[in-house]
Every structure is written in structure tokens, then in C-alpha cells.
């Protein structure tokens, strides 16, 4: 397994851990609870710090155990570019789902689509961060899959 | 086009020529400035290298380009 694949595994696990932390802080029984802005700012800050620290630790561990493999060659760059394209598509689709859902909710009160009340800040905060995590985990999962394909 | 390819379209004799030259994958990787994993992927025909890397491989293996790589429609 290459150092870049190991990094992708670490990053995937770190982002799942951070998303679990977000979910733990923002939901109860899978429903977003109405928390204070201070609570959200603290949660956001903790997630940023957690992600930066986790990626620094992963990079440090891999750097300690590597000889000369940390530089990306053309295959690594091709895989990263493809994973980023797919991440972009996933984020595009997810944002469009949120927009369509919000518009449907406003225009057609009795629509049959799943409902999220994006009008409240906690739900908007949770939804946007979840979209970011969805994009990142997709990118890392695609990276791992491409290294193994 | 470089990148992950369908197996069999761009075929190569990298493994055969490397073994004939008594070279390890790591040695060849170092010579062409690629990772060992990339050499493994090229030998398994899971990755088609760029023209630049393909020429470097051919040169490192001491063989003409068309002897190392072939393309089937």
C-alpha cells in the first residue's frame, strides 16, 4: 500500500470521526436540535482543529515511516485529479438537492419530498457541514478505490 | 490519454524487459522518477503512463519505445 493510499485511509477515518462528532453535538435521535450560536461556533472550531490535527498526525506518521515515496508521481496526480472531479460532482448534486428541497418547501407546502427545515440556523449549519464531509469522504473513498482498481 | 485504463488496450513488456535487465521494480521506479506502486500498476496494465514516462521507461530498459509499448484498437 502506497503512502498516499495510507493517507487517504487516515483522512477518510478522520473525516468520519469528525462528522460523528458533529452529529453527536448537533442531533438527538437523528433530529437536529435547536442549539445556540455559541454552541455551533464551538463545534465548528473543534472540528477545524480536529481535522487539522488529525491530518498533521497522519502526515507525520507517514513521513516518519517513508523513504522517498511522499512526492506524488503522475499516477498519484491523475488519481487525485479524478477523485477531486468526483468530489465536485457529489457536492454539486448535494447542494442542488438542498436548493430544490428548500424551494419545494417554500413553493409547495404539501410536497412529498423529504423535509429539512433549512430556515433554522442549526439545520443549515449541519446540512452544509455534512455536504462538505460528504464531498471529502467521497474523494478519499474514490482515491482508495482507484489505487486498488 | 493517461490514467487508469481498461486492461489490455495499451499493453507493455515492462516486466519482461525489467526482469531481463535484472532490475527490481524499486530500481526502475527510481530511474524513471516514479513510485514503485506506479511501476506495479504499469506492469499489470492497470495504468497507462504518459508519453514522457513511457519514453523514460523505454530508455531505462534499453529498448525502443515500440518494443516496450503497443496499442491495440
In short:
The complex is a heterodimer of chains A (about 150) and B (about 70). Chain A is an all-alpha fold.
Fold blueprint:
The complex is a heterodimer of chains A (149) and B (73).
Chain A lengths: L2 H24 E2 L2 E2 L4 H28 L9 H34 L13 H28 L1
Antiparallel strand pairs in A: 1-2
Chain B lengths: L2 E2 L5 E3 L1 H7 L4 H7 L4 H8 L3 E2 L2 H11 L3 H4 E3 L2
Features:
heterodimer; A: 149 residues; mainly alpha; two-stranded antiparallel ribbon; 2 strands; 3% strand; flat; B: 73 residues; alpha+beta; 434 Repressor (Amino-terminal Domain); two-stranded antiparallel sheet; 4 strands; 51% helix
**Stretches with pLDDT under 50, minimum 5 residues of chain B:** none
- Side-by-side strand order of the widest sheet of chain B: 1-3
The CATH top-level class label of chain B: Mainly Alpha
- Largest sheet, spatial ordering of strands of chain A: 1-2
In total, how many domains does the architecture of chain B comprise? 1
Number of strands of chain A: 2
Q: Find the biggest chain interface.
A: A-B, 14 and 16 residues
Walk me through the structure.
The complex is a heterodimer of chains A (149) and B (73). By secondary structure, chain A is mainly alpha-helical. Chain A has one domain. Chain A has four helices and two strands, in the order H-E-E-H-H-H. In chain A, strands 1-2 form a two-stranded antiparallel ribbon. In chain A, helix 3 packs antiparallel against helix 4. The longest helix of chain A is centred in the middle third of the chain and has 34 residues. Chain A is flat, with a radius of gyration of 18 Å. The two termini of chain A are 12 Å apart. Chain B has a single domain, classed as lambda repressor-like DNA-binding domains (434 Repressor (Amino-terminal Domain), Orthogonal Bundle). In chain B, the strands form two sheets. Chain B has a two-stranded antiparallel ribbon. A two-stranded antiparallel ribbon of chain B has the order 2-4. In chain B, helix 2 packs across helix 3. The longest helix of chain B has 11 residues. The chains are: A mainly alpha (149), B alpha+beta (73). At the A-B interface, helix 3 of A face strand 1 and helix 3 of B.
